[in-house]
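Forwarding these from the shared drive since the link keeps breaking.
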Amino acid sequence: MLISWSRLLIGHLRDPLVGRDILIGALGGTLMGLLWHLSYFVPTWFGAPSLAAFPGGVETLSSMRRVVGDLLGRLGEAIQMALIALFLLTLYRILTRKDEIAVSLLLVTQIVFNFWWYQTSSLSVEVTFLALIWVTSVTVLVRFGLLAQVAALFFFFALQRIPIALDFNVWYAGHALLALSMLAFAAAYAFYVSLAARPAFGGRLLEE
Protein backbone atom coordinates (compact mmCIF):
# COMPACT_ATOMS: atom_id res chain seq x y z
CA MET A 1 0.00 0.00 0.00
CA LEU A 2 2.99 2.31 0.36
CA ILE A 3 5.16 1.35 -2.63
CA SER A 4 4.07 4.08 -5.05
CA TRP A 5 3.83 6.62 -2.20
CA SER A 6 7.42 5.84 -1.18
CA ARG A 7 8.64 6.12 -4.77
CA LEU A 8 6.98 9.50 -5.11
CA LEU A 9 8.55 10.77 -1.89
CA ILE A 10 12.06 9.90 -3.08
CA GLY A 11 11.51 11.80 -6.31
CA HIS A 12 10.54 9.12 -8.82
CA LEU A 13 7.97 11.35 -10.49
CA ARG A 14 8.13 9.42 -13.77
CA ASP A 15 7.69 5.98 -12.24
CA PRO A 16 4.88 4.14 -14.12
CA LEU A 17 3.44 2.81 -10.85
CA VAL A 18 3.24 6.35 -9.50
CA GLY A 19 1.44 7.49 -12.65
CA ARG A 20 -0.93 4.53 -12.56
CA ASP A 21 -1.96 5.06 -8.95
CA ILE A 22 -2.48 8.81 -9.43
CA LEU A 23 -4.59 8.12 -12.51
CA ILE A 24 -6.70 5.52 -10.72
CA GLY A 25 -7.14 7.92 -7.81
CA ALA A 26 -8.15 10.71 -10.21
CA LEU A 27 -10.82 8.49 -11.75
CA GLY A 28 -12.08 7.39 -8.35
CA GLY A 29 -12.14 10.96 -7.03
CA THR A 30 -13.98 12.17 -10.13
CA LEU A 31 -16.62 9.48 -9.60
CA MET A 32 -16.94 10.54 -5.95
CA GLY A 33 -17.34 14.18 -7.02
CA LEU A 34 -20.02 13.30 -9.56
CA LEU A 35 -21.91 11.30 -6.94
CA TRP A 36 -21.67 14.23 -4.53
CA HIS A 37 -23.17 16.70 -7.03
CA LEU A 38 -25.75 14.19 -8.23
CA SER A 39 -27.00 13.81 -4.67
CA TYR A 40 -28.16 17.45 -4.79
CA PHE A 41 -30.68 16.68 -7.51
CA VAL A 42 -31.97 13.19 -6.71
CA PRO A 43 -34.32 14.31 -3.88
CA THR A 44 -36.09 16.70 -6.28
CA TRP A 45 -37.00 13.74 -8.50
CA PHE A 46 -39.18 12.48 -5.65
CA GLY A 47 -40.64 15.86 -4.72
CA ALA A 48 -38.32 16.44 -1.75
CA PRO A 49 -36.19 19.54 -1.19
CA SER A 50 -32.71 19.41 -2.70
CA LEU A 51 -29.66 19.00 -0.50
CA ALA A 52 -28.03 22.14 0.86
CA ALA A 53 -25.11 23.32 -1.25
CA PHE A 54 -21.60 22.64 0.00
CA PRO A 55 -20.36 25.72 1.87
CA GLY A 56 -17.86 27.90 0.01
CA GLY A 57 -16.83 27.54 -3.58
CA VAL A 58 -17.53 30.59 -5.70
CA GLU A 59 -15.33 32.93 -3.64
CA THR A 60 -12.35 30.64 -4.32
CA LEU A 61 -12.69 31.50 -8.01
CA SER A 62 -12.34 35.25 -7.52
CA SER A 63 -8.76 35.22 -8.84
CA MET A 64 -6.19 32.86 -10.32
CA ARG A 65 -4.19 33.06 -7.09
CA ARG A 66 -7.21 31.94 -5.08
CA VAL A 67 -7.80 29.05 -7.49
CA VAL A 68 -4.24 27.75 -7.15
CA GLY A 69 -4.19 28.35 -3.40
CA ASP A 70 -7.46 26.54 -2.88
CA LEU A 71 -6.30 23.53 -4.90
CA LEU A 72 -3.10 23.36 -2.86
CA GLY A 73 -5.21 23.53 0.29
CA ARG A 74 -7.31 20.63 -0.95
CA LEU A 75 -4.11 18.64 -1.61
CA GLY A 76 -2.97 19.13 1.98
CA GLU A 77 -6.40 18.12 3.22
CA ALA A 78 -6.34 15.01 1.01
CA ILE A 79 -2.95 13.91 2.36
CA GLN A 80 -4.12 14.38 5.94
CA MET A 81 -7.37 12.46 5.43
CA ALA A 82 -5.65 9.64 3.53
CA LEU A 83 -3.07 9.18 6.29
CA ILE A 84 -5.84 9.10 8.90
CA ALA A 85 -7.72 6.48 6.88
CA LEU A 86 -4.59 4.35 6.54
CA PHE A 87 -3.92 4.66 10.28
CA LEU A 88 -7.48 3.61 11.12
CA LEU A 89 -7.34 0.67 8.71
CA THR A 90 -4.08 -0.51 10.27
CA LEU A 91 -5.50 -0.06 13.78
CA TYR A 92 -8.67 -1.98 12.94
CA ARG A 93 -6.61 -4.79 11.42
CA ILE A 94 -4.53 -5.05 14.58
CA LEU A 95 -7.60 -5.08 16.82
CA THR A 96 -9.76 -7.46 14.80
CA ARG A 97 -7.12 -9.53 12.93
CA LYS A 98 -9.67 -9.77 10.11
CA ASP A 99 -9.21 -7.76 6.93
CA GLU A 100 -12.90 -7.86 6.04
CA ILE A 101 -13.97 -6.56 9.47
CA ALA A 102 -11.27 -3.89 9.43
CA VAL A 103 -12.38 -2.60 6.02
CA SER A 104 -16.03 -2.60 7.12
CA LEU A 105 -15.19 -0.64 10.27
CA LEU A 106 -13.22 1.89 8.22
CA LEU A 107 -16.17 2.33 5.86
CA VAL A 108 -18.59 2.87 8.74
CA THR A 109 -16.17 5.36 10.32
CA GLN A 110 -15.89 7.32 7.07
CA ILE A 111 -19.67 7.48 6.61
CA VAL A 112 -20.37 8.55 10.20
CA PHE A 113 -17.54 11.13 10.19
CA ASN A 114 -18.82 12.76 6.99
CA PHE A 115 -22.51 12.50 7.83
CA TRP A 116 -22.72 16.07 9.17
CA TRP A 117 -21.78 17.64 5.80
CA TYR A 118 -25.27 17.01 4.50
CA GLN A 119 -28.42 18.93 5.42
CA THR A 120 -31.37 17.22 3.84
CA SER A 121 -34.86 16.03 4.54
CA SER A 122 -34.18 12.82 2.62
CA LEU A 123 -32.20 10.61 4.98
CA SER A 124 -32.28 7.60 2.66
CA VAL A 125 -30.71 9.59 -0.20
CA GLU A 126 -28.09 11.00 2.14
CA VAL A 127 -27.03 7.62 3.48
CA THR A 128 -27.10 6.03 0.03
CA PHE A 129 -24.81 8.57 -1.59
CA LEU A 130 -22.49 8.75 1.41
CA ALA A 131 -22.16 4.97 1.23
CA LEU A 132 -21.44 5.04 -2.52
CA ILE A 133 -18.86 7.81 -2.14
CA TRP A 134 -16.96 6.22 0.70
CA VAL A 135 -17.16 2.69 -0.68
CA THR A 136 -15.32 4.11 -3.68
CA SER A 137 -12.78 5.83 -1.43
CA VAL A 138 -12.10 2.77 0.76
CA THR A 139 -11.87 0.53 -2.32
CA VAL A 140 -9.20 2.77 -3.82
CA LEU A 141 -7.21 2.71 -0.57
CA VAL A 142 -7.43 -1.04 0.00
CA ARG A 143 -6.87 -2.07 -3.61
CA PHE A 144 -4.30 0.49 -4.79
CA GLY A 145 -2.78 2.08 -1.69
CA LEU A 146 -2.04 5.42 -0.12
CA LEU A 147 -1.01 7.43 -3.19
CA ALA A 148 -4.15 6.48 -5.09
CA GLN A 149 -6.20 7.42 -2.02
CA VAL A 150 -4.52 10.83 -1.81
CA ALA A 151 -5.25 11.46 -5.49
CA ALA A 152 -8.86 10.32 -5.10
CA LEU A 153 -9.51 12.57 -2.12
CA PHE A 154 -7.76 15.51 -3.80
CA PHE A 155 -9.97 15.27 -6.89
CA PHE A 156 -13.04 14.72 -4.72
CA PHE A 157 -12.38 17.71 -2.46
CA ALA A 158 -11.51 19.90 -5.46
CA LEU A 159 -14.72 18.98 -7.28
CA GLN A 160 -16.67 19.70 -4.12
CA ARG A 161 -15.29 23.23 -4.02
CA ILE A 162 -15.29 24.13 -7.71
CA PRO A 163 -18.66 25.30 -9.06
CA ILE A 164 -19.26 23.72 -12.44
CA ALA A 165 -19.97 26.63 -14.79
CA LEU A 166 -22.45 25.37 -17.38
CA ASP A 167 -23.17 28.98 -18.32
CA PHE A 168 -19.96 30.45 -19.71
CA ASN A 169 -21.32 33.98 -19.31
CA VAL A 170 -21.12 33.90 -15.50
CA TRP A 171 -18.25 35.90 -14.00
CA TYR A 172 -16.44 32.88 -12.53
CA ALA A 173 -16.59 30.68 -15.65
CA GLY A 174 -13.00 31.38 -16.71
CA HIS A 175 -11.48 30.54 -13.35
CA ALA A 176 -13.70 27.46 -13.00
CA LEU A 177 -12.44 26.20 -16.35
CA LEU A 178 -8.87 26.94 -15.24
CA ALA A 179 -9.31 24.83 -12.11
CA LEU A 180 -10.91 21.98 -14.03
CA SER A 181 -8.17 22.20 -16.66
CA MET A 182 -5.51 21.85 -13.96
CA LEU A 183 -7.21 18.69 -12.69
CA ALA A 184 -7.48 17.35 -16.24
CA PHE A 185 -3.80 18.09 -16.87
CA ALA A 186 -2.79 16.22 -13.71
CA ALA A 187 -4.80 13.18 -14.81
CA ALA A 188 -3.41 13.36 -18.36
CA TYR A 189 0.17 13.59 -17.09
CA ALA A 190 -0.42 10.62 -14.78
CA PHE A 191 -1.76 8.66 -17.77
CA TYR A 192 1.32 9.58 -19.82
CA VAL A 193 3.70 8.52 -17.02
CA SER A 194 1.83 5.25 -16.46
CA LEU A 195 2.44 4.24 -20.09
CA ALA A 196 6.23 4.06 -19.48
CA ALA A 197 6.93 5.34 -23.01
CA ARG A 198 4.63 2.73 -24.58
CA PRO A 199 2.09 3.85 -27.22
CA ALA A 200 -1.31 4.53 -25.74
CA PHE A 201 -3.23 2.27 -28.15
CA GLY A 202 -0.63 -0.35 -29.06
CA GLY A 203 1.63 -0.57 -32.07
CA ARG A 204 -0.69 -2.74 -34.18
CA LEU A 205 -3.58 -0.30 -33.85
CA LEU A 206 -1.35 2.66 -34.73
CA GLU A 207 -0.06 0.83 -37.81
CA GLU A 208 -3.63 0.19 -39.00
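-- next protein --
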Amino acid sequence: MNILVCIDDTDNLESRGTGELASLLAAQLEERGWGESRFVTRHQLLVHPDIPYTSHNSAMCFAATLKEATLLPRFIAHAGSFLERESAGGSDPGLCVAAAPQLGDPAPLVAFGRAAKELVLDKAAAYALAGELSLHLSEHGGSGQGVVGALAGVGLRLGGNDGRLKGRLPLGPAGARCRVGELGNQPLVEAVRGVDGSRPDPTALVEFGEKIKTVLLEGKSVLLLEATGDPTVPWRTCSRQRLKHY
Protein backbone atom coordinates (compact mmCIF):
# COMPACT_ATOMS: atom_id res chain seq x y z
CA MET A 1 0.00 0.00 0.00
CA ASN A 2 1.39 3.40 -1.00
CA ILE A 3 0.93 6.20 1.51
CA LEU A 4 1.88 9.84 1.98
CA VAL A 5 2.74 11.05 5.48
CA CYS A 6 3.01 14.70 6.48
CA ILE A 7 3.64 16.43 9.79
CA ASP A 8 3.58 20.10 10.67
CA ASP A 9 4.19 22.46 13.59
CA THR A 10 6.21 20.12 15.81
CA ASP A 11 9.07 22.40 16.85
CA ASN A 12 10.08 25.59 18.60
CA LEU A 13 13.12 27.80 18.10
CA GLU A 14 15.31 25.66 20.38
CA SER A 15 14.18 22.16 19.36
CA ARG A 16 14.87 19.74 16.55
CA GLY A 17 13.13 20.78 13.35
CA THR A 18 10.04 19.18 11.87
CA GLY A 19 12.17 17.85 9.01
CA GLU A 20 14.33 15.88 11.42
CA LEU A 21 11.27 14.36 13.06
CA ALA A 22 9.87 13.40 9.66
CA SER A 23 13.14 11.65 8.81
CA LEU A 24 13.09 9.80 12.14
CA LEU A 25 9.51 8.68 11.61
CA ALA A 26 10.33 7.42 8.11
CA ALA A 27 13.34 5.54 9.47
CA GLN A 28 11.25 3.94 12.22
CA LEU A 29 8.75 2.69 9.64
CA GLU A 30 11.59 0.80 7.97
CA GLU A 31 13.24 -0.35 11.21
CA ARG A 32 10.01 -2.02 12.28
CA GLY A 33 9.81 -3.90 9.00
CA TRP A 34 6.55 -2.23 7.98
CA GLY A 35 7.75 -1.11 4.57
CA GLU A 36 10.03 1.30 2.72
CA SER A 37 10.10 5.09 2.70
CA ARG A 38 11.24 7.70 0.19
CA PHE A 39 12.80 11.13 0.63
CA VAL A 40 11.35 13.89 2.80
CA THR A 41 10.19 17.10 1.11
CA ARG A 42 9.76 20.55 2.63
CA HIS A 43 6.69 22.51 1.52
CA GLN A 44 6.54 26.23 2.20
CA LEU A 45 3.13 27.53 3.26
CA LEU A 46 1.82 31.06 3.66
CA VAL A 47 3.60 33.25 6.21
CA HIS A 48 0.97 35.53 7.73
CA PRO A 49 0.34 37.22 11.11
CA ASP A 50 -2.85 35.18 11.54
CA ILE A 51 -0.99 31.88 11.21
CA PRO A 52 1.03 30.70 14.24
CA TYR A 53 4.36 29.15 13.25
CA THR A 54 7.88 28.78 14.60
CA SER A 55 10.09 30.23 11.90
CA HIS A 56 9.11 29.45 8.31
CA ASN A 57 5.68 27.73 8.34
CA SER A 58 6.70 24.71 6.32
CA ALA A 59 5.31 21.17 6.35
CA MET A 60 7.41 18.02 5.89
CA CYS A 61 6.15 15.06 3.87
CA PHE A 62 7.42 11.64 2.81
CA ALA A 63 6.07 8.78 0.73
CA ALA A 64 6.20 5.17 1.86
CA THR A 65 5.07 1.74 0.79
CA LEU A 66 3.61 -0.50 3.48
CA LYS A 67 4.06 -4.26 3.03
CA GLU A 68 0.42 -4.88 3.92
CA ALA A 69 -2.68 -2.70 4.14
CA THR A 70 -3.33 -4.10 7.61
CA LEU A 71 -0.24 -2.23 8.85
CA LEU A 72 -1.82 1.18 8.20
CA PRO A 73 -3.67 1.50 11.56
CA ARG A 74 -0.54 0.38 13.41
CA PHE A 75 1.61 2.92 11.66
CA ILE A 76 -0.88 5.74 12.26
CA ALA A 77 -1.04 4.91 15.97
CA HIS A 78 2.75 4.82 16.14
CA ALA A 79 3.07 8.15 14.30
CA GLY A 80 0.60 9.82 16.64
CA SER A 81 2.40 8.58 19.74
CA PHE A 82 5.71 9.61 18.22
CA LEU A 83 4.51 13.20 17.70
CA GLU A 84 3.09 13.44 21.21
CA ARG A 85 6.38 12.23 22.63
CA GLU A 86 8.86 14.05 20.39
CA SER A 87 7.20 17.38 19.53
CA ALA A 88 8.52 20.43 21.34
CA GLY A 89 6.71 22.25 24.10
CA GLY A 90 4.45 25.00 22.81
CA SER A 91 4.08 23.41 19.38
CA ASP A 92 0.76 22.48 17.75
CA PRO A 93 1.57 19.26 15.87
CA GLY A 94 -0.63 17.80 13.19
CA LEU A 95 -0.46 14.50 11.29
CA CYS A 96 -1.93 13.52 7.93
CA VAL A 97 -1.68 10.05 6.40
CA ALA A 98 -3.17 9.47 2.96
CA ALA A 99 -3.41 5.96 1.53
CA ALA A 100 -3.48 5.66 -2.26
CA PRO A 101 -6.61 3.46 -2.40
CA GLN A 102 -8.59 6.15 -0.55
CA LEU A 103 -7.53 9.16 -2.59
CA GLY A 104 -9.74 8.84 -5.66
CA ASP A 105 -9.67 12.20 -7.44
CA PRO A 106 -6.60 14.03 -6.05
CA ALA A 107 -7.66 17.45 -7.42
CA PRO A 108 -9.38 18.77 -4.23
CA LEU A 109 -6.41 17.79 -2.06
CA VAL A 110 -3.87 19.31 -4.46
CA ALA A 111 -6.00 22.47 -4.59
CA PHE A 112 -6.04 22.68 -0.78
CA GLY A 113 -2.26 22.47 -0.74
CA ARG A 114 -1.90 25.25 -3.27
CA ALA A 115 -4.42 27.40 -1.41
CA ALA A 116 -2.41 27.03 1.82
CA LYS A 117 0.47 28.80 0.09
CA GLU A 118 -1.70 31.87 -0.55
CA LEU A 119 -4.61 31.92 1.93
CA VAL A 120 -5.22 31.65 5.68
CA LEU A 121 -7.04 28.33 6.11
CA ASP A 122 -8.53 26.90 9.29
CA LYS A 123 -8.87 23.52 10.98
CA ALA A 124 -12.54 23.23 10.10
CA ALA A 125 -11.78 23.37 6.39
CA ALA A 126 -8.97 20.83 6.79
CA TYR A 127 -11.09 18.35 8.72
CA ALA A 128 -14.00 18.76 6.30
CA LEU A 129 -11.83 17.89 3.30
CA ALA A 130 -10.07 15.04 5.11
CA GLY A 131 -13.48 13.60 5.96
CA GLU A 132 -14.68 13.85 2.37
CA LEU A 133 -11.57 12.06 1.12
CA SER A 134 -11.40 9.53 4.01
CA LEU A 135 -7.87 10.60 4.95
CA HIS A 136 -6.39 10.33 8.42
CA LEU A 137 -5.95 13.78 10.00
CA SER A 138 -5.20 14.25 13.69
CA GLU A 139 -3.75 16.76 16.16
CA HIS A 140 -1.24 15.77 18.82
CA GLY A 141 -0.73 18.68 21.16
CA GLY A 142 -1.34 22.37 21.71
CA SER A 143 -4.03 23.90 19.52
CA GLY A 144 -3.56 21.23 16.85
CA GLN A 145 -3.31 23.94 14.20
CA GLY A 146 -0.65 21.84 12.47
CA VAL A 147 -3.39 19.70 10.89
CA VAL A 148 -3.85 22.44 8.29
CA GLY A 149 -0.23 22.30 7.19
CA ALA A 150 -0.12 18.51 7.40
CA LEU A 151 -3.06 18.17 5.01
CA ALA A 152 -1.66 20.89 2.72
CA GLY A 153 1.73 19.19 2.63
CA VAL A 154 0.18 15.94 1.46
CA GLY A 155 -1.65 17.83 -1.28
CA LEU A 156 1.52 19.57 -2.43
CA ARG A 157 3.55 16.34 -2.44
CA LEU A 158 0.76 14.63 -4.34
CA GLY A 159 0.78 17.44 -6.91
CA GLY A 160 4.41 16.58 -7.58
CA ASN A 161 5.65 20.08 -8.38
CA ASP A 162 6.33 21.76 -5.06
CA GLY A 163 8.98 21.50 -2.40
CA ARG A 164 12.66 20.97 -1.79
CA LEU A 165 14.16 17.74 -0.54
CA LYS A 166 15.38 17.77 3.03
CA GLY A 167 19.14 17.86 3.37
CA ARG A 168 21.85 18.70 0.89
CA LEU A 169 23.69 16.59 -1.66
CA PRO A 170 27.30 15.70 -0.75
CA LEU A 171 28.62 16.34 -4.26
CA GLY A 172 31.76 18.21 -3.27
CA PRO A 173 33.02 21.62 -2.14
CA ALA A 174 31.85 24.85 -3.72
CA GLY A 175 33.79 25.49 -6.89
CA ALA A 176 34.39 21.80 -7.68
CA ARG A 177 33.25 20.51 -11.07
CA CYS A 178 31.93 17.38 -12.72
CA ARG A 179 30.14 16.31 -15.88
CA VAL A 180 26.36 16.61 -16.03
CA GLY A 181 26.08 12.88 -16.69
CA GLU A 182 27.84 12.07 -13.44
CA LEU A 183 25.16 13.81 -11.40
CA GLY A 184 22.66 11.07 -12.17
CA ASN A 185 24.79 8.63 -10.18
CA GLN A 186 23.73 10.28 -6.94
CA PRO A 187 21.07 8.24 -5.05
CA LEU A 188 18.72 11.21 -4.60
CA VAL A 189 19.07 12.64 -8.11
CA GLU A 190 16.36 11.19 -10.35
CA ALA A 191 16.71 13.79 -13.12
CA VAL A 192 18.87 16.79 -14.05
CA ARG A 193 17.27 19.82 -15.70
CA GLY A 194 18.04 23.43 -16.50
CA VAL A 195 15.82 25.93 -14.68
CA ASP A 196 14.23 26.62 -18.08
CA GLY A 197 13.26 22.96 -18.42
CA SER A 198 16.10 22.12 -20.80
CA ARG A 199 18.09 18.87 -20.66
CA PRO A 200 21.80 19.73 -20.31
CA ASP A 201 24.33 17.84 -22.42
CA PRO A 202 25.62 14.94 -20.27
CA THR A 203 29.20 15.79 -21.25
CA ALA A 204 28.98 19.47 -20.21
CA LEU A 205 30.76 20.69 -17.09
CA VAL A 206 28.90 21.79 -13.95
CA GLU A 207 30.36 23.94 -11.19
CA PHE A 208 29.12 23.29 -7.65
CA GLY A 209 27.71 26.03 -5.48
CA GLU A 210 26.97 25.83 -1.76
CA LYS A 211 24.18 23.78 -0.14
CA ILE A 212 23.20 21.78 -3.21
CA LYS A 213 19.60 20.55 -3.04
CA THR A 214 17.09 18.88 -5.32
CA VAL A 215 13.47 19.92 -5.82
CA LEU A 216 10.27 17.99 -6.48
CA LEU A 217 9.20 18.30 -10.13
CA GLU A 218 6.82 15.95 -11.91
CA GLY A 219 7.02 13.70 -8.87
CA LYS A 220 10.81 13.28 -9.13
CA SER A 221 13.82 14.51 -7.20
CA VAL A 222 15.32 16.91 -9.75
CA LEU A 223 18.67 18.69 -9.59
CA LEU A 224 18.27 22.08 -11.25
CA LEU A 225 21.13 23.85 -13.01
CA GLU A 226 21.58 27.48 -14.04
CA ALA A 227 23.28 28.52 -17.26
CA THR A 228 26.50 30.45 -16.69
CA GLY A 229 27.05 31.87 -20.18
CA ASP A 230 30.55 30.41 -20.09
CA PRO A 231 31.07 27.86 -22.91
CA THR A 232 33.84 26.14 -20.93
CA VAL A 233 31.70 25.52 -17.82
CA PRO A 234 28.15 26.16 -19.07
CA TRP A 235 26.26 25.10 -15.92
CA ARG A 236 26.27 25.61 -12.16
CA THR A 237 24.03 24.29 -9.41
CA CYS A 238 21.26 26.65 -8.33
CA SER A 239 21.84 29.17 -5.59
CA ARG A 240 19.98 28.88 -2.32
CA GLN A 241 18.08 32.07 -3.19
CA ARG A 242 16.91 30.59 -6.49
CA LEU A 243 15.69 27.42 -4.80
CA LYS A 244 13.45 29.41 -2.47
CA HIS A 245 10.97 29.58 -5.34
CA TYR A 246 10.33 25.82 -4.98
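The chain has a mean pLDDT of 91. Helices lie at 18-31, 72-86, 100-103, 107-115, 123-133, 146-159, 180-183, 240-243.

- D.
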